[in-house]
């Protein structure tokens, strides 16, 4: 399926999310980048699922690589803009639960994204 790049929603990065993603392995960066482009095109990336516990419109991309799990959390509930909230490597080897410090960071970045959107709505 082809995506028209001129029809993509803008992607805005919150906090250190972009820098954190740049530290991921190349294949993971490519996979997450492709998934985010699908989200910008208004499509659901195959690797995306709702991120629970922080409100509606928050999605998570999960990518496994060489025994490690990488996550990228983004916000879709603000019209016409995709906000990337957090990118991190899951450290725990047992369980799927997101650590509380990461959940708190995501919640605070949702607030930052909402404030940014009020100041700079999509054009």
TrEMBL record:
Domain of life: Bacteria
InterPro entries, per the entry: HigB-like
Name of the protein described by the UniProt record: Type II toxin-antitoxin system RelE/ParE family toxin
Origin organism lineage: Bacteria, Pseudomonadati, Pseudomonadota, Alphaproteobacteria, Hyphomicrobiales
